[in-house]
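in:
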């Protein structure tokens, strides 16, 4: 199957849907969830909600296990399964972007979703309905977090609140389960940031949007690839790639510390004039440590921005596709 056979002209009949699924070391869960994705796709096709040209696009993010071999096997067995493989691991956000950019000229709409089976696939029905009603972007939002531990729920909700407080426009309790039209994807392609944070970039593109609420389930197999450390890194990437608010905050705090220092100088001068000076080793040490700490934090935040600017100026590719299932001889279908 070639790319032309998978595509169509927009506006002709039912929309072509590509379900974009990033995969990294998912050999345990893919045999379970792949049939679930196929069942949902065929259900939408049978009800004439989407075209039979619709596909499930797996994106192998440089997995070190049998994930890519599984994807290739799926593509040989079922024409609705296709896959691409990155030349190396580049991270979840880059894998999602690679799939979206690969699909944008071959379909009318995409739905990105993780392959672990936690996101309710029935929400896709509502997403497609919202698109048919006029929405160009449909966000999948968790209705509740009852299955999470207190720590997980607290950190996740704090994550969204922190991002919004820092000026990164994100949809509360929305991850990367969303429908995006090809029209929006073509505009998103113009955002050339190397430091990707799709949850913040998609709202920046604009266009009409709506929300679909769903319940998130337990992971069906394997282990999560988004522990707390990665979540914190993602939050920091989101803040620094979409907002300069942290620099403004440290600037304002710098003025505040300078004001306190000025008051301290006045106090020291008055005490010296009145002859009430005493040994102040403790207070002096505290002040020096405090100011030094603030300076190091400020330099760290500024350095983060400088580092990201450095990476952006290099203009390195955000993803490199090394293999496509439909380009393999055994998967090509003539005519």
């Amino acid at each position: 199957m070639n790319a032309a056979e998978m595509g169509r002209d927009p506006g002709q009949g039912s929309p072509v849907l590509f379900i974009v699924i990033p995969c990294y070391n998912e050999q345990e869960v893919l045999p379970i969830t792949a049939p679930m994705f196929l069942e949902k796709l065929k259900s939408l096709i049978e009800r004439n909600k989407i075209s039979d040209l619709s596909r499930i696009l797996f994106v192998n993010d440089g997995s070190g296990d049998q994930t890519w071999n599984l994807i290739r096997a799926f593509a040989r067995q079922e024409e609705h399964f296709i896959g691409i493989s990155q030349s190396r691991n580049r991270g979840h956000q880059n894998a999602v972007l690679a799939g979206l950019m690969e699909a944008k000229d071959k379909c009318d709409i995409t739905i990105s979703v993780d392959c672990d089976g936690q996101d309710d696939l029935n929400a896709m029905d509502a997403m497609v309905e919202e698109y048919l009603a006029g929405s160009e972007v449909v966000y999948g939002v968790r209705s509740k977090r009852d299955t999470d531990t207190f720590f997980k729920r607290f950190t996740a909700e704090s994550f969204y609140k922190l991002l919004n407080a820092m000026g990164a426009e994100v949809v509360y309790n929305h991850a990367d389960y969303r429908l995006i039209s090809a029209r929006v994807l073509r505009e998103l392609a113009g955002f050339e940031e190397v430091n990707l944070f799709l949850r913040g970039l998609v709202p920046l593109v604009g266009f009409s949007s709506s929300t679909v609420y769903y319940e998130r389930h337990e992971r069906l197999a394997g282990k999560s690839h988004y522990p707390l450390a990665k979540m914190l890194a993602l939050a920091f990437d989101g803040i620094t790639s979409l907002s300069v608010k942290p620099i403004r905050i440290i600037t304002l705090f710098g003025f505040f510390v300078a004001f306190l220092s000025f008051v301290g100088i006045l106090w020291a001068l008055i005490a010296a004039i009145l002859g009430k000076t005493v040994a102040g080793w403790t207070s002096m040490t505290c002040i020096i440590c405090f100011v030094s700490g603030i300076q190091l934090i400020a330099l760290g935040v500024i350095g983060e921005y400088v580092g990201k600017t450095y990476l952006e100026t290099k203009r390195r590719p955000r993803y490199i596709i090394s293999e496509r299932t439909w380009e393999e001889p055994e998967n090509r279908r003539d005519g």
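note: The chain has eleven helices and eight strands.
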